[in-house]
Automatic annotation (TrEMBL):
Gene Ontology MF terms in the entry: oxidoreductase activity
Name by which UniProt lists this protein: Aryl-alcohol dehydrogenase-like predicted oxidoreductase
Keywords: Oxidoreductase
Keyword Oxidoreductase applies: yes
Pfam family membership, one: Aldo_ket_red
Length: 317
């Protein structure tokens, strides 16, 4: 009954920041994004084989989905995969809030189906998961994932879908050198053992792990990420400098090394892309093979920072 297996490139592309209005202080990242600039990002990504676009209703209350659809205009629907989310916390009060939210997403994105549809945050797994089944049966969604769910919630969602011949095919959690709770809780092992794709988000910790920022060059003041990360930048310096050195030997950046680490761990990183140059970095990251000793060293340095970058929306796994 299940449609063909979910197949995705080594890296997925995140459009969280595409929901920004572009005005300073509005939106999470304080980005300056233009339609023509994002179109260039799409063209370079698509040409490079990066064809999975991850968005959500709550990224700019639908704005990210609309902006993404415009940027993809002209491409055949078979040339890219759309990943978006049902967020229980903003569900409407109709008879079928999941179907309603999906319809709005389909409408904004100008498509008849979503390749990968997520339950965004855990709320009441037993309540929301069954509502995905008719959408899978109708073909409006091709594959199902769960985001920010712990092992117990993943297992329950999988059991509910399993009774109808479907399954949880993907898990999407915050996972980076600085935040490995999914690994420690056994979620990564579960995904490996059951052929479930693990998508890691915040791999670059919103820029704090790119090597671009440090005590002398903090994140842009007034943005939410500055509030979250500027205070810990001094503690990250040894780690980001080592990442930079590992990258330098390979003609790559610290950010590329962070991405390569996430790939080496068997995950599919979702990397936010707002500039054309970021796509070059993803191409480099996909070509980097980190040695086991390098992975162990980076993880030890990351543990030594003793920071907790758990998002306000997350619980410990």
């Amino acid at each position: 009954m299940t449609s063909e297996t979910l197949r995705v490139p080594a890296v997925a592309l995140g459009t969280w920041a595409w929901g920004d209005s572009g005005d300073a202080g509005e939106g999470y990242f304080g980005s300056r994004l233009t339609a023509s600039g994002l179109r260039e990002v799409v063209e370079k990504a698509q040409a490079g084989g990066f064809t999975v676009w991850d968005t959500a209703v709550v990224y700019g209350t639908g704005r990210s989905e609309s902006v993404l659809a415009r940027a993809l205009k002209g491409y055949d629907r078979s040339e890219y995969q759309l990943s978006t989310k049902f967020t229980p916390q903003v569900a409407g009060d109709g008879d079928d809030p999941v179907a309603d939210m999906l319809e709005q997403s389909l409408d904004r994105m100008g498509t008849e189906y979503v390749d990968l549809y997520w339950i965004h945050n855990p709320a009441d797994v037993a309540r929301w998961t069954p509502l995905l089944i008719p959408l899978l049966e109708s073909g409006k969604i091709r594959h199902v994932g769960v985001s920010n769910h712990n092992m117990e919630e993943i297992a329950l969602a999988d059991q509910i879908l399993g009774e109808a011949g479907f399954r949880v095919e993907a898990v999407q959690n915050h996972y980076s050198l600085l935040y490995r709770s999914s690994e420690r809780a056994g979620v990564l092992d579960h995904c490996r053992e059951h052929d479930v794709r693990f998508f890691s988000y915040m791999v670059l910790e919103q820029g704090a792990l790119t090597g671009t920022y440090g005590p002398a060059h903090p994140l842009p003041e007034g943005s939410s990420r500055a509030a979250a990360y500027n205070g810990i930048l001094p503690r990250l310096q040894t780690l980001t400098e080592r990442m930079g050195a590992i990258g330098e030997d390979r003609g790559a950046s610290a950010a590329d090394v962070a991405t390569a680490w996430a790939i080496a761990k068997g995950t599919t990183p979702i990397i936010g892309v707002t500039k054309v140059g970021y796509i070059d970095g993803l191409t480099r990251a996909c070509g980097i093979e980190l040695a086991d000793e390098e992975i162990a060293e980076l993880e030890a340095l990351a543990d030594a920072t003793d920071v907790d970058t758990r998002g306000f929306w997350e619980r410990e796994m």
